Fold these 2 entries.
Entry 1:
Amino acid sequence: MKNPMNYIQNGDYQIPDLKLSEQPMKPLGKYGRMRKAYLKEHRPILYNQLLMSEKLYPHLIEIDETAQSRLEQMMPQLAESAGATEELKASDPMKWVGLMNTCKAQAEEILMAELINS
């Protein structure tokens, strides 16, 4: 019987010589890591399917980039609606920082619901 798979001898055992294809080594950002943790914990079948088909890393990179761009789009709108203006930044920096932190928390909550945990 001819087997096209290569094996490596390790003691008395023959172990399949499996190798993944080369993938670009761009580090995952915050949202990509959060998506990976979500998939691993709550959607293990999907996580394993993406991992075995070598589509996990591109999926995580796409989620990370999408989340970053959506955050950049939402922050000015949320800051404007909250009243975090440049005048406020100059007159009361602590209040401005508090408003900006609130806006970022709101934006991240939206991203979590729409991209990360879906």
Entry 2:
Amino acid sequence: MTMNLFHRLLCRSSSWERTSSTRVVPWALENVDLGAASVEIGPGYGANVRALLARTNALTGVEIDPVLAARLRERRGEVMTVLDGDGADMPLPTARFDSVGCFTMLHHVPTPEYQDALFADALRVLRPGGVFAGSDGLDSTAFRLIHLGDTCVPVPPEGAAERLTDVGFTDVRIDTDATKFRFRARRPA
């Protein structure tokens, strides 16, 4: 799940953290209640931590890159739990969390099948009635240019609802704007 140098510099910048906390996360989570205990899959450099902690009491991040997980633990470990792990096989108990989120990272998951495994594991760790929500970018020439040399497998929003339903989610909603899409889905009660 490779990221090129430009992309890494962008994702760890204060500018991206501002953009994510004021535009990406609020748009993705509009009218979404995260509940008391939330998981972020792929928190990376931690751009979403402040915005998510404003919406939940306890935040756990599951990060596949051990260097990023260690960095995030060092920088934000006092306000969240950071685990080394794979979003498709999270080191978390079943039915423990009120919400799971992932923001601008799904396209870094290397195959649609692997993305579906991530969706299924998000379902597994949610309590009945829990919500899975987040956002990702839409495929475009500009999107592909930013990701030159990256793992880049965009999720087509027109098929996302069916994929989420196929792994067991209900109440699936997908919305798009010019450059991104958001999704919300629930684990059946």
